[in-house]
Amino acid sequence: MYDIPFWKILPFLLISSAHLNIPRLSPNGGTFFAEIILHTTSRKTMSAADPINDFETFYYNQTLDHFNFRPDSFNTFQQRYLINFKHWVALMLVHQYLLTLAKKNAIDVDLSIIGFLNENAHQFQALQIFIEHRYYGKSVPFGSREEAFQNADTLGYFNSAQALADYAEVLIHVKKKLHAQHSPVIVIGASYGGMLASWFRLKYPHVALGALASSAPILYFDNIVPPEDGYYSIVTKDFKEASETCYQTIKKSWSEIDAIASQPEGLSFLSEKFHTCRPLKKSSELKNYLDNLYCNAAQYNSPPSYPVTVVCGAIDGASHGNDTLAKYLLVLLRTEETSHAMLTNPK
Known about the structure:
Elements: H1 6-9, H2 30-38, E1 55-63, E2 76-84, E3 97-101, H3 107-110, H4 115-124, E4 127-131, H5 145-148, H6 152-155, H7 160-177, E5 185-190, H8 192-203, E6 210-214, H9 230-242, H10 244-261, H11 266-273, H12 283-299, H13 307-317, H14 324-333
Parallel strand pairs: 3-4, 3-5, 5-6
Antiparallel strand pairs: 1-2, 2-4
């Protein structure tokens, strides 16, 4: 495990050990936010993302199981976390922490899309901490991915409750090392990371002062928030707004795929038509792939690419003589999906 270099914590030893008055974030903005707004035009514009080398890498000897007392619960693994000290002003009495809760990817993948965090770290003169989720990247228990994913016993430690406890341990460790136990922490995340941020604030309010959850479906579970197809209703709305004819073509395609698949040699025809990695066994394999394509296009429908527009442009741009499946091939040829085999082996 790597410790934080002593020279980085030396300035903080000058700070009084008395309990500091932790500032509360005002829902109305407060004077600090007013000052930012008033002087935005005179401030130097910061780039969307700091260079990756502004982050320093550390490892924490993490507990495998935070909630049980079996012998293997006390096993440990190396959990990676990154710190950006760039914007943290050394002699401020109260130091802000902005913690990103990593999600679904190795930490290296997420570093390229956290411009929002860097910009706010600059404004708040905050320390940035980025903690890698267990079982991803270099934070894998049992020594290797093969061992960690081999069966239900080893995968049993792969859940959000354990991940939240990981984050709490790392945060408490870092604050102790920096002699900054009373510095307020704001946890930030998007999508699943946003869900983690919300849950972290609820479960560990003594560790985090607040949470910012972006696009976080914290209540989107079965039998909690109706309708159950709420996500798909939003995807449908995105495509209808982009093009009504595109929406109608997609709607028609599901029954057309099923009709072809039900015919003799129909699945072979679809496999050949869509250049699948292996022969289709049922029509749902193809439909699930297309479903995923549409959902990803809607979820990440942002400039400059606007993937929903790209998909609908390919569908609407096909000649009127082309059948629905031919239009789909044009869609696939105009997306980056075609750089790989179109269908992977389902689990």
